[in-house]
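Lab meeting, item 3. Inverse folding demo.
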């Protein structure tokens, strides 16, 4: 795979390591792959500066003062952050790697790391992060609907027409049309096809 810009809309990558030389080398290397890279000298500085509710990929050093990489990862999970996490350590072993992956890390590398392998892991992590973010955003939008709008949405996904929904809910056709218009505006979709693609699987079960 050649270097170049990746086709992921949000490519924010965060390098979190207490060693300046490591941060500088990683930033230089990853920017060569077209990534937007931001560096932090500690887990606390990272958490205090970054909006962790947005997609991206964090490369965390396992051994840092105050907050270890594992501590940062746990705090991200507690906040339900969509960020993907890749561990990079100079003191890793197989049990540590297994534990990190079980905890939901995207990958685990020991220093020094091969640039191409790290780039591929980051690219995969960014794609997974974007998918999680969209899923969370869709869920938040769904929760913004009223109970009636949620009911109409479920009937739309089931394939019902407006009159069928009106009959099923014992309301007027005009009421269904209003609910349908409002929910599509709240969900940010322009067609029934978009609606079903975004919400069909999550609410049909």
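The presenter then showed the designed sequence:
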């Amino acid at each position: 795979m050649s270097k170049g810009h990746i086709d992921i809309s949000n490519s924010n990558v965060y390098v979190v390591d207490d060693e300046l030389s490591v941060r500088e080398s990683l930033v230089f290397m990853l920017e060569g792959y077209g990534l937007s890279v931001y560096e932090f000298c500690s887990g606390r500085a990272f958490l205090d500066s970054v909006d962790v509710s947005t997609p991206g990929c964090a490369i965390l050093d396992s051994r840092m003062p105050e907050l270890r990489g594992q501590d940062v990862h746990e705090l991200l999970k507690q906040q339900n952050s969509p960020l993907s996490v890749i561990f990079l350590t100079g003191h890793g072993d197989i049990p540590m790697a297994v534990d990190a992956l079980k905890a939901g890390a995207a990958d685990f590398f020991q220093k020094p790391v091969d640039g191409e392998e790290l780039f591929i892991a980051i690219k995969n992590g960014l794609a997974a992060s974007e998918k999680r973010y969209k899923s969370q955003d869709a869920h938040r939008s769904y929760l913004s609907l009223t109970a009636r709008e949620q009911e109409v949405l479920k009937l739309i996904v089931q394939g019902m027409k407006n009159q069928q929904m009106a009959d099923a809910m014992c309301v007027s056709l005009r009421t269904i049309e209003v609910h349908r218009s409002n929910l599509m505006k709240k969900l940010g979709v322009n067609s029934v096809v978009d609606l079903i693609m975004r919400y069909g699987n999550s609410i049909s079960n």
